[in-house]
Write a structure and sequence with these properties.
GO terms for molecular function: metal ion binding; superoxide dismutase activity. It catalyses: 2 superoxide + 2 H(+) = H2O2 + O2. Its EC number is 1.15.1.1. By secondary structure, this protein is mainly α. It folds into two domains: 60 residues, Fe,Mn superoxide dismutase (SOD) domain (Helix Hairpins); 101 residues, 3-Layer(bab) Sandwich (minor pseudopilin epsh fold), CATH 3.55.40. The chain is built from eight helices and three strands. The protein has a three-stranded antiparallel beta sheet. Helix 1 packs antiparallel against helix 3, helix 4 crosses helix 5 and helix 4 crosses helix 8. The longest helix has 23 residues.
């Protein structure tokens, strides 16, 4: 079974002005595609050939884990964004954010702090704990909450390739723009 690069849930220019079509050309069309292509080369003719991405992530390490996790993480990330997204969290996840962090503003501040303090490449996640509460988690490189039996609700890619074309090294400006795109409907689906 060959893995395929899933279609973006919107046109490549749909996230402008916060993320340009050029950024998506490189991030989705080159980086994400490269993870899927390399993953297929690694699993071809092996026992992993018939596994799902999640099964490979749970049972592998090293390069195979990295390629599978990055393929999964990126697909998840694209769905966390929407041209009609942004605004404050609503629905059950909005209520859970206020219950956990005190306010939506306190949540965004904590999330941005985690993203700005994260050294090097990785991801910032909002995850649902087993007790139903929420937690902000930072992972390095390809690491992903599903490898640790956590339920990811929201992901923001903080690898420089996610924002360098549009923001150069200004991660803080990228984060300000990302809040205008968050797909809270998708986050709520993950929460339920």
């Amino acid at each position: 079974m060959a893995f395929e690069l899933p279609a973006l849930p919107y046109d490549k220019n749909a996230l402008e002005p916060y993320l340009s079509a050029e950024t998506l050309e490189y991030h989705y069309g080159k980086h994400h595609l490269a993870y899927v292509t390399r993953l297929n080369a690694l699993v071809e003719g092996t026992d992993d050939d018939q596994k799902s991405l999640e099964e490979i992530i749970q049972s592998s390490a090293g390069e195979l884990f990295n390629q599978a996790a990055q393929a999964w993480n990126h697909t998840f990330y694209w769905h966390c964004l929407s041209p009609s997204g942004g605004g404050e969290a609503h629905g059950p996840v909005g209520e859970a954010i206020v219950a956990e962090f005190g306010s939506f503003s306190a949540f965004t501040q904590a999330f941005e702090t985690a993203a700005l303090e994260h050294f090097g490449a990785g991801w910032i996640w909002l995850v649902k704990r087993a007790d139903g509460g929420l937690e902000i988690v930072a992972t390095h490189d390809a690491d992903t909450p599903i490898a640790h039996h956590q339920t990811p609700l929201l992901a923001v890619d903080v690898w420089e390739h996610a924002y360098y074309i549009d923001y150069r090294n200004a991660r803080a400006k990228y984060l300000q723009g990302i809040w205008q795109l968050i797909n809270w409907d998708f986050v709520n689906q993950n929460f339920s």
